[in-house]
Specification:
174 residues; alpha+beta; two-stranded antiparallel ribbon; 10 strands; 33% strand
């Protein structure tokens, strides 16, 4: 659940960190600078509502709407326990396409009754949906949430990549 007392993006007081206020069909979102950018032009899309770092159909639609207006941007979402460190809905927005998008997409398994694509040669689990199938992605995310399965999503203007993560983290070593 969302923790009002913990850090969240609603506590940002420096208005220069807020690049845009967006009134999308799905709700209000802010585009913030990233204090710790991994890439040039690495920004955050943050829900105006104080809600947990959990993907919903509303957020899926907002991200799809944003990316339809900008062809050169991608968005990343990390669920709680899959690299997210702030429990307030946000996703990362960058103006480049990550390496996984260079893999050719081939027919993959059926997910929720729909044939999905997979990146041929990608060394992990990844299911790729056409960006207009937000409803199918929402159903897959709901199923992962029901199983408490961490997950990451990558949004491009044409596709949504779903990366289920292990429910139990594997042992790590140096």
């Amino acid at each position: 659940p969302f923790n009002q007392n913990g850090f969240h993006f609603g506590k940002i007081m420096n208005d220069r960190e807020r690049l845009l206020k967006l009134a999308l069909r799905s709700g209000s979102y802010d585009v913030l600078t990233n204090k710790f950018p991994l890439f040039p032009k690495h920004m955050l899309l943050v829900a105006g509502a104080l809600v947990p770092q959990q993907m919903t159909g509303t957020h899926l639609n907002a991200i799809a709407e944003l990316l339809q207006a900008t062809t050169g941007f991608c968005a990343y979402f990390n669920s709680w326990c899959a690299s997210a460190s702030v429990n307030h809905f946000h996703c990362h927005v960058i103006d480049e396409f990550p390496p996984v998008t260079a893999y050719p997409l081939v027919a993959g398994p059926c997910v929720g009754g729909q044939r999905v694509l997979t990146p041929q040669g990608f060394p992990g689990f990844c299911y790729v949906f056409p960006s207009e199938r937000v409803d199918a992605v929402a159903a897959a995310v709901d199923a992962m949430l029901a199983d408490n399965q961490p997950h990451n999503l990558l949004f491009t203007p044409r596709h949504i990549y779903v990366f289920p993560k292990p429910i139990v983290r594997p042992a790590r070593s140096f």
